[in-house]
């Protein structure tokens, strides 16, 4: 039989976490301590509800090598989320797609640092087109998501 305390506890829990609320997985971001755009990308994730842990690294090349990021897909920071690698300024849409579909890949990357990608926005300039590229342990690479008109943060 449910007592009064248990009933109140269940009601409090129901009101504290609305239906459909989800907990986002933690993102661990490895970055150079002097890189501002890496911090901007981490803040973009935080605003979307992802808990973010920052690890400042003196040798990011070693992190990228251990993670299996191909040289042609490397960018300024390397992140890890639920067993996947997220390299560079990847939009949340691509991260959500990867987490939902659970493809057999190591991760996704936005190579280089395209202007206007998350964390690389410049007010008053048009964003550059870019692609999110998936990469697998086998060396296979492919377009995961395409942003032919660049990326714009929602207002």
Question: Beta-sheet strand percentage?
Answer: 15-25%
Q: Mean of residue pLDDT?
A: 86
Sheet with the most strands?
7 strands, mixed
Ends distance: 50 Å
Number of helical elements: 4
Q: What's the CATH superfamily, by name?
A: Glutaredoxin
Rg from alpha-carbon coordinates? 18 Å
Q: Based on Cα principal axes, name the global outline.
A: globular
* CATH topology assignment: Glutaredoxin
Do you know the CATH architecture? 3-Layer(aba) Sandwich
Strand order, main sheet: write it out: 2-1-3-4-5-6-7
Low-confidence stretches: 1-21
CATH class value: Alpha Beta
Q: Name the helix and strand elements from N-terminus to C-terminus, one letter apiece.
A: HEHEHEEHEEE
Number of domains: 1
Helix content: 25-40%
For this entry, give a set of tags:
alpha/beta; 7-stranded mixed sheet; 7 strands; 155 residues; globular; disordered N terminus; Glutaredoxin
Describe this structure in words.
The protein contains four helices and seven strands, in the order αβαβαββαβββ. With 155 residues, the protein is an alpha/beta fold. It starts with a helix and ends in an 8-residue tail after the last strand. Residues 1-21 have low confidence and may be disordered.
Which secondary structure elements does this structure contain, and how are they paired or packed?
Layout: H1 4-16, E1 27-31, H2 36-47, E2 52-56, H3 60-67, E3 78-81, E4 84-88, H4 92-101, E5 107-110, E6 130-135, E7 141-147
Parallel strand pairs: 1-2, 4-5
Antiparallel strand pairs: 1-3, 3-4, 5-6, 6-7
